[in-house]
Amino acid sequence: MGSFSPIHLLVLAIVAILLLGGGRFSNLMGDVAKGVKNFKKGMAEEDEPAKPSKRIEAQSRAEPAFDREGDRVRDDR
Asked: For 16-58, what is each residue's pLDDT tens digit?
């Protein structure tokens, strides 16, 4: 009790076909088949080589504007 036998599944399939209609059911199954086919095709294709990401180049180390005594080292004006 509580499990579906093949007879139960057959009755459910017949009711589904009657409610949905034969054409709609076959269209639905066709769409599922196309989806599976496209999925397999996508899995079979080789991935394109990964393009290197554009990275921001680090700037060189900034020179201090003042030395330890407080004298101006560079003039940015």
From this structure: 888 877 777 778 888 999 999 998 888 877 666 666 667 777 6
Among candidate residues 3, 26, 6, 25, the one with its CA nearest the CA of residue 16: 25
Q: What are the phi and psi torsion angles at 57 (to 5°)?
A: -70, 135
- In single-letter form, the type of residue at position 26 comes to S
Whole-angstrom Cα distance, residue 19 to residue 15?
6
Going by the DSSP 8-state scheme, the letter that residue 68 receives in this structure is T
Which structure tokens are listed for 17? 């076909």
Rounded CA-CA distance 37/34 in Å is 5
**CA–CA separation, 41 and 73 (whole Å):** 65
pLDDT of residue 74: 66
